[in-house]
Design brief:
alpha/beta; AB_hydrolase_lipase; 8-stranded mixed sheet; 28 helices; 10 strands; single chain; two-stranded antiparallel ribbon; about 700 residues
Length: about 700
């Protein structure tokens, strides 16, 4: 009888699981089909979906297509860097040899993971790797070899299973081979595919997959309950034994409590805590494990950099108004040339490393000998401030003014202090540079709102007669002029301007408020990838909101810096400031709403028009626009160019076939080549090596 009941429950359980699984799949297919139908009716979708580099919306027999640079492991940009380092930049070569000598003495940072051997092997790969006929041949060969792969997989699987069983039987001895209990991350091998995050091989679960898993666990638990209940009903003797054991265990617990009646609660807690071993996981490790149970990507910029084998340093910077900023660094401590990368709105430093070794500006600059600094504006949901009790209203009360006059100055001065002290330490035999000159060259590469903040920073520092410490500005689709935009931006402009007094009190900032909804967004991004028509529909609708910009908006939603723990946000005053700039048609500082308030801040009843002060910019400026950019159109970047040129600024202008997010989140070889070529125009500070006796004699003559 027991066997009949068990078989009946097993068959019923599998039937229910199959029914629910197929029902959920059919529901998802229905949504995908309706999305495909709606997608065919929307106009202009071909131009929008064309910009999804790395996200293939059309399903194929062999899975999603990988971009060519991911197949090769590198791009022609690395060949460009190699040629520049060998032929044109002789001073950089001499400096690299000096670095190697210092590294042999143990005083320098480790060399870049991108070696010359890997560059030569990468660039030797064929350029027409992704041609049409090659794909068909690969597909045919894959299907022909499928039976052989299955036959080979079975014995390999059995061997792997046997190896796991043997490894479990062997005890681990941490002290025997000097291994610690902390996890070991191997250094990245040059030539491997480094897409961060790897969208086409992402193993995160989406919402649909989580629902399937949750329903299956629920069904298992329900039928497990009924199976145990039926087993107890059909076995009265066993049921009586279980009930009897309950009574005996309760009597034993009462007697134990009586024996320990004289012991205090604190002493009991101490005894329990003393049983924890040294190898037990720390609270941080437990948090990481708990987060991994949600199956979301919560990697930080530090995780990405260190996983790829690069050095990393985190620097906490506190502004004069109390905000805590994270300045991240890929250190090359003895380098006399540095680059500062500043992100745009709703972005973070992750954008500069999101394409891995091959396509990220941060790694490209480090490979070329630069000390790389990654700036982060204020405005994370975690709200880092010296005043731990600061209210949400007070924390989010800042505009672009504070980004330019508080955030950037604090980070740049911290960079200056670090570089000057490190260069004295790592190069003691080099003659000191005069005080009016800094011993290093600092270039800046910024995107979107970061470009507007950098321009505002340079101009305000020049007005205050303070050094801005930059040697060159490379601005990728910079904000500042927005009068040429679409209807959606115009609607948002008047909404912010007319309803600002009311909305500012209700919505101090724009972000996803809770961990649950941030996790949901991260998982929905995976569902948009699993169901191409749904992803294409969301991509098209989001592009309509921003005027038809063909950036990979769906792909950006799945990036690690939009995770359940934290995410970048935008304050209401920043959005209001952008609305003021668009309404006035001028690149102006924040209008505080009254003549008296503006008079107190600026010394005039109107905020400063920064375009009138472009003549104060005393360093070369490179402006880059995207022909497909509908957020900041090329006409607005050309307006920057015309005003700078008329003001006598050394400025250049270039255009690429890019949308707005392509400047950071997409792999673009020609853009990286252009940025690096502009950086290499700035020569490092010229120094002369002197002997220590000569330095002492010089100081003695100066004092005498």
């Amino acid at each position: 009888m027991q066997r009949i009941v068990d078989n009946a429950l097993a068959v019923t359980k599998e039937s229910v699981k199959t029914l629910t699984y197929e029902s959920l799949n059919n529901f998802a297919r229905c949504i995908n089909g309706v999305s495909a139908l709606l997608l065919t009716l929307l106009p202009g979708k071909s131009n929008i979906l064309e910009g999804l580099h790395g996200w293939e919306l059309r399903p194929t027999l062999r899975g999603p297509r990988l971009p060519r640079w991911m197949h090769n492991g590198v791009s022609s940009f690395n060949q460009f860097i190699h040629e520049l380092s060998v032929d044109s930049d002789t001073s950089s070569l001499e400096y690299s040899s000096a670095e190697d000598d210092d590294y042999s003495d143990g005083m320098s940072t480790p060399p870049s993971p991108s070696s010359q051997t890997s560059l030569r092997s990468w660039t030797s790969l064929p350029a027409n790797y992704e041609s049409h006929w090659t794909e068909w041949i690969t597909l045919i060969v894959w299907w022909v070899l499928l039976p052989a792969r299955i036959l080979l997989w079975v014995p390999l699987f059995l061997l792997r299973l046997l190896g796991r069983r043997n490894s479990r039987m062997l005890p681990m001895s941490p002290g025997r081979y000097g291994h610690s209990s902390r996890p070991y991350f191997s250094k990245a091998i040059p030539g491997k595919e480094h897409d961060v995050p790897n969208r086409t091989t992402d193993r995160r679960r989406g919402v649909i997959e989580d629902l399937q898993l949750g329903i299956e666990i629920f069904i298992e638990s329900i039928f497990d309950f009924f199976h145990k209940a039926a087993h107890l009903l059909l076995s009265p003797s066993e049921t009586f034994g279980i009930v009897l054991s309950w009574f005996s265990s309760s009597n034993h617990s009462h007697s134990s409590k009586g024996n320990y009646g004289d012991v205090s609660d604190d002493e009991i807690v101490q005894v329990q805590t003393a049983t924890l071993g040294d190898n037990d996981s720390s609270p941080t490790e437990r948090t990481t494990t708990t987060t991994s149970l949600y199956n979301t990507d919560t990697r930080t910029c530090q995780d990405v950099i260190t996983e790829l084998g690069y050095p990393y340093e985190a620097i906490r910077v506190v502004t004069s108004d109390g905000y805590g900023l994270l300045l991240e660094r890929i250190p090359r401590r003895d380098a006399r040339k540095a680059v500062y990368l500043q992100h745009g709105v709703m972005d973070s430093s992750m954008g500069w490393v999101s394409n891995g070794v091959v396509g990220s500006p941060a790694f490209a600059a480090y490979d070329q000998g630069y000390d790389v600094f990654l700036g982060n504006f204020r405005g994370l949901v975690s709200r880092d401030h010296v005043n731990k009790n600061i209210s949400s209203k007070d924390f989010w009360r800042y505009s672009i003014n504070e980004h330019a006059t508080e955030d950037i100055p604090a980070m740049i001065e911290k960079i200056h202090d670090i570089k000057t002290s490190e260069l004295k330490l790592y190069q003691p035999t080099v003659e000191e540079v005069p005080k009016e000159e800094q011993p290093y060259k600092l270039c800046v590469v910024s995107h979107s709102l970061g470009g507007a903040a950098v321009l505002m920073y340079v101009i305000t520092r020049r007005i205050e007669e303070k050094p801005h410490r930059f040697s060159r500005l490379i601005l990728l689709s910079p904000a500042g002029f927005h009068d040429d935009s679409n209807v959606c931006f115009t609607f948002m402009e008047y909404t912010f301007l007319l309803l600002a007094p009311v909305l500012k009190r209700i919505v101090p900032a724009f972000y996803i408020p809770t961990k649950f909804f941030r996790m949901l967004l991260n998982k929905l991004a995976r569902d948009f990838h699993n169901y191409p028509a749904v992803g294409g529909l969301v991509q098209t609708l989001m592009s309509y909101v921003v005027g038809g910009d063909s950036s990979n908006w769906v792909g950006v939603m799945g990036l690690p810096h939009y995770n359940m723990n934290d995410m970048p946000a935008i304050s209401f005053c920043v959005a209001q400031h952008l609305a003021q700039i668009k309404h006035s048609g001028k690149f102006k500082m924040f209008d505080y709403g009254s003549s008296s308030a503006n008079m107190e801040v600026y010394g005039s009843p109107e905020p400063l028009d920064l375009g009138e002060f472009y003549g104060l910019i005393d360093v070369p400026v490179d402006l880059v626009a995207g022909k497909k950019d509908k957020v900041i159109r090329p006409s607005m970047v050309r307006k920057h160019y015309r005003v700078m040129r008329d003001s006598g600024v050394d400025v250049s202008y270039n255009e690429f076939e890019y949308a707005h997010l392509d400047f950071t989140f997409s792999h673009r070889e020609e853009l990286l080549a252009y940025v690096m070529s502009r950086l290499l125009l700035v020569e490092p500070t010229q120094t002369q090596t002197v002997h220590k006796k000569g330095m002492k004699l010089k100081k003695k003559m100066e004092t005498g």
